[in-house]
What we know:
By secondary structure, this protein is an alpha/beta fold. The protein folds into 3 domains: 5-252, Rossmann fold (3-Layer(aba) Sandwich), CATH 3.40.50; 348-721, no CATH class; 725-753. The chain is 61% helix and 8% strand. The chain has 30 helices and 15 strands. The strands form 5 sheets. A 6-stranded mixed β-sheet has the order 4-5-3-6-7-8, with helices on both faces. Helix 7 links the parallel strand 7 (160-164) and strand 8. The longest helix is centred in the middle third of the chain and has 30 residues, at 268-297. It is elongated. The two termini are 31 Å apart. Belongs to the PC-esterase family. CASD1 subfamily. This is N-acetylneuraminate (7)9-O-acetyltransferase. One of its GO terms (biological process) is carbohydrate metabolic process. Residues 21-91 form the NXPE C-terminal domain.
Amino acid sequence: KGGDTCEYLLSSGRFLGEKVWQPHSCMMHKYKNSEAKNCLLDKHIAFIGDSRIRQLFYSFIKLINPQVKEEGNKHGNILFEDKSASVKVDFLWYPEVNGSMRQRIKSWTESSVAKPHVIVAGAATWSIKIHNGSNEALMQYKINITSIAPLLEKLAKSSDVYWVLQDPVYEDMLSESRKMITNEKINAYNEAAVRILNSSSRNSKAKVKVFSVSKLIAQETIMKSADGLHLPESSRDTNAMILMNVYCNKIMKPIDGSCCQPQPPLTLIQKLAFCFFTLSFVGYLVIHLIHRSNYRKNKSCTDLESGEEKKPAIGSPSVSTLEMLLHSFCKLGLIMTYFYLCDRANLFMKETKFYTHSSFFIPIIYILVLGVFYTENTKETKVLNREQTDEWKGWMQLVILIYHISGASTFLPVYMHIRVLVAAYLFQTGYGHFSYFWIKGDFGVYRVCQVLFRLNFLVVVLCIVMDRPYQFYYFVPLVSVWFMIIYATLALWPQIVQKKANGNCLWHLGVLLKLVCLLTCIYFLSYSQGAFEKIFSFWPLSKCFELNGNVYEWWFRWKLDRYVVFHGMLFAFIYLALQKRQMISEGKGDPLFSSRVSNVLLFISVASFLTYSIWASSCKNKTECNELHPSVSVVQATFILIRNIPGSVRSVYSSFFAWFGRISLELFICQYHIWLAADTKGILVLIPGYPVFNVLVSTFIFVCVAHEISQITNDLAQIVVPKDNSTLLKRLLCLAGFFFGLLLFSALQDPARH
């Protein structure tokens, strides 16, 4: 609706499950102790009110120091200070809105007194209890809060002031001395507070913020209260986290804390990108109109003398390379506008992920049924033929997408199986590129540029438009670097390809020696973090691989699947050697090996996969699992054996999965911003209130966009990366100039951003 998301955070929301609070339209960040201290550095926060405010005070300071215990005089002031961060948080005992509370608040308005940066106030239940719920007490409450309101509004000009509305009570559990505190009375007091506060400053930006969301939380959880009056600890912690988000999100700017965050200002590079796409649109429109005009002039016309029609020399308007280029950039510009509106502008809502087993496994079963339904015969029956690899990429990508949108990373067994699927992508990278270089022997610059362009084009555009570092889209840097490693391994002297190796078997030993050297280098770098970081800390590599000021994330991602590409290369070498010597049978319907060998290998493959699944399910934590993952991730080879040994299975494929496999890279990257939200931390909400319908609509748009980007990338690859070497060299020089300019502009805008 265009309103401030802070208002929604303070006033509305719902529970996802039992403990996860989802504010309306935005996402809450879960603050750690270190983050809370950084945000509240040199700050003074004051809580003023009754026992309910005291509870909120304790939950708040536990976000700064979890070791704090709820001790001290319950009916007195409590002071807390964290000297490491110079944070002061005070609780001031004022259980009634009366003259004493007014005097304390008035003292803060005086110029000589240091004002708290944040003031959290609220009280009412004591007034109801002491005066036995009389109407006179309510009238006095209105008079008192009317006298306090102008003081709070004055403080709101320089401090953040929150008035906490009273939570409902669970009347059945109240003790006899509290029976007069009814929800009807509480509602009357809340209505009075809302009506009176800000009454004199309705058009002013400086307002007392009404903290009413606590009522909604209490309505769901008050029945778990120990005495019917005070909230259970989990609800208090939620309220404290909301307070922290309201104040700190605009300071810390967490990715997954979209509540209370203003729209980020456009960077210089983003403005230049907008100008470029605008000029592309104008240029395409002009060229298109000129072509249309020329085409009409060349149309058949009647010869006035003979009365016959003359046929045009050209049957249709020709499309020039420039027009095709501008047309592609026009479409890309519109798509990038949608990306920006979805995940940078505060136009669409964002929600937190919430994992349940059904939200992950039901869609998985559904797509598997669809995949089996669209089964067709393959054009060829070789191991890992094109249709089969597309199918493999497709179903893996769909599973990964469901994993991301359902938030299944919190469930460790699913997380470990998804890690195997990511490793399988890298396995295919090793297998596919090794096979190409080994069979074709094509080490030309054109091949390298084509692959790198197709891999990186979308990510480079998103880095510019979405203002994100290259390493943020970690998978593309990973496959790009591994492609260059494969290329270097095979292209460096001596260049050994299949044609050469067929003449002399010793060349096979040469290839194995190269692979052993590669494995040695991988092993050394995996246990030498310092050497790895030094390699990627040199400019301009550091600009590509740094995230949050260091290359640790890149080191972690590389190390996690460090052996998988090597496994793919080794598998390709062994398979192609066996194929050349006709030691495997790849006829339609034929098993890959003899019946006995095939059965043994199938049994080992199934047993290996089941063993891995049992191990993944028994893993204690992610750190322990990730340490062992590189050693056991070779389990993806069992997929290949199970899929290819039986001839009947090898001869068919799912066209449904294969279609998605052909755009798997675009799907993986596009999900960051137009399917998920807040850079994958949340879910994009186009249609609020209808979660299933929302997922259907956003998924349809997301898949269409990914498919269109795939087409644009293919079209531009033919134009930007020509086969002619001299033209290609000129284009490479232009690209080098473009990236140098990009790095220069990035260096200029970094100080302004900090």
